Structures are given as C-alpha cells and as structure tokens.
Amino acid sequence: MPIKTAFPTDPADSELSWQDSALCAQTGPEFFFPEPGSSTREAKRLCGACDMRSVCLEYALTHDERFGVWGGLSEKERYELRRASR
C-alpha cells in the first residue's frame, strides 16, 4: 500500500501536475498543516506569491480538502467560501 502524503505527487496524475510548480513543494508541510491554534500566516504568505494558487484552491474545493491551507485559504475560509457560493 502506498504511503499517502500531505500533498499527493504521483507524476502520472495530471490533475496534480500543478504541484510540481507550486511553492509548497519547496517547503515542509508544517506551514500548511499547522498544529491547532498555530498561525497560518506563513503558509498564506507563500500561497500569495505562488503562481499555482488558484489551481490549488480549485483542487481543494473540488476534493473537499478539510485540513490545512490550500490556495491561500484555511479550512474555515474554504468552508465559508463553499457556503457562500450555495
């Protein structure tokens, strides 16, 4: 059974090919999956400078990612975005 990572990176999966160019691929997951109560500021700063931000956010919304910072938004922010778009 393959090990599942925070950011799946199977090169055969073209849906995830954007991750190769994303800034998060150059950092550790601790920024994007902080301990409860920790700041997401650093992750959001990196996301703000990333060319893949919109693709990442779309992926997270499409796949209902419930944990971590994706596309510059926290779990709560993505939840609120989904709720507002209904």
Summarize this structure as a short list of keywords or feature phrases:
protein-disulfide reductase [NAD(P)H] activity; transcription regulation; iron-sulfur; globular; 33% helix; Transcriptional regulator WhiB; 86 residues; 3 helices; mainly alpha; disulfide bond
Give me the strand/helix succession: HHH
Category from helices, strands and their pairing: mainly alpha
Give the biggest beta sheet: none
Mean pLDDT across the residues is 85
Unreliable sequence segments: 1-6
- Gyration radius, in Å: 13 Å
N-to-C terminal Cα separation, in Å? 37 Å
Helix content: 25-40%
In total, the number of strands is: 0
Number of domains: 1
Total helical segments: 3
Shape: globular
Beta percentage is: under 5%
